[in-house]
Specification:
Blueprint lengths: L29 E3 L11 H11 L18 E9 L4 E10 L13 E8 L7 E3 L10 E9 L2 H4 L3 E9 L5 E10 L14 E4 L16 E9 L12 E11 L10 E9 L8 E2 L3 E2 L5 E11 L3 H4 L1 E10 L2 E10 L5 E2 L2 E2 L7 H12 L5 E6 L11
Parallel strand pairs: 1-15
Antiparallel strand pairs: 2-3, 2-9, 3-6, 4-5, 4-7, 7-8, 10-11, 10-20, 11-15, 12-13, 12-14, 12-16, 16-17, 18-19
Amino acid sequence: MSKSVPAFLQDESDDRETDTTSEGSYQLSRHKKSPSSLTNLSSSSGMTSLSSVSGSVMSVYSGDFGNLEVKGNIQFAIDYVDSLKELHVFVAQCKDLAAADIKKQRSDPYVKTYLLPDKGKMGKKKTLVVKKTLNPVYNEILRYKIDRQILKTQKLNLSVWHRDTFKRNSFLGEVELDLETWDWDNKQNKQLKWYPLRRKTAPVAFEAENRGEMKLALQYVPEPMPGKKLPTTGEVHIWVKECLDLPLLRGSHLNSFVKCTILPDTSRKSRQKTRAVGKTTNPVFNHTMVYDGFRPGDLTEACVELTVWDHYKLTNQFLGGLRIGFGTGKSYGTEVDWMDSTSEEVALWEKMVNSPNTWIEATLPLRMLLIAKISK
């Protein structure tokens, strides 16, 4: 077998999110949409959906990291094909992996790759699972359509996982390459090499130094229709004004928009977006989103997730986000990863709750988030 990356395979399907946005898609300055009733989330049926949310994080970090020893090596090579504008990752094999099945001394391993900082579906590729071995051979090419200049802003993460009969994943180790200084013209860098697998990189290593800021305002309206005899639920108004100093991940190109979800509801009908604003790192949106169905008690359990994305062709690249809530780590009695608001985000939420019918404004720094899966 040649020790250079083999020829490109033309018929591989594209594994990407196709959540496109256009300039004309979001013209309403005030868009009212109700999530699946927040009131019902405190009931037993709501707790079922909440449990599924807390356990389904779509990111590099999903899976079991603590049970298995990290050992062994992985052999791979990378190359950039200018004529195709593609990064090729040739995953050859692994050896001496940890045994997920201690008694039979074997695992069912596969390799997953990400281009960081994007940790969503569009940045993820993976090999097939090779069963019952600690020395799997893959000989697979994982390909990314990406401009060479953008690669300089990326890191390549390769992680090895065991997948059991119930499709649960256990972490077996990882390797990470910083592509900012990678010499693509060096022939030695195109050869197959062995890399030792390492323990999980701390999440802080994935943080960009500066993801920019968002200027916004929140308002809680307890009784949108006063005077009605029956008790009504309240509304949370979210006014996304502008973003400042967004990072450029595609050279000088940027076409950004903001997406909003009220957690724990991750259904598509609860998601709202601004229009996309191009050719600036300081986009002005002036877009108001309204969510109803809030009882006073729901304000303690819910969290506003705002994420900023760069839209390019058929893909959306994550730039940064906010999670505005009380940051208690729990929602309706269940521990959840997404209730992780910073002190600044908590302060904004507290002021909104304590000052009903009043716009509370803030400028908050965007940060890396573990994005929850969007349910249908």
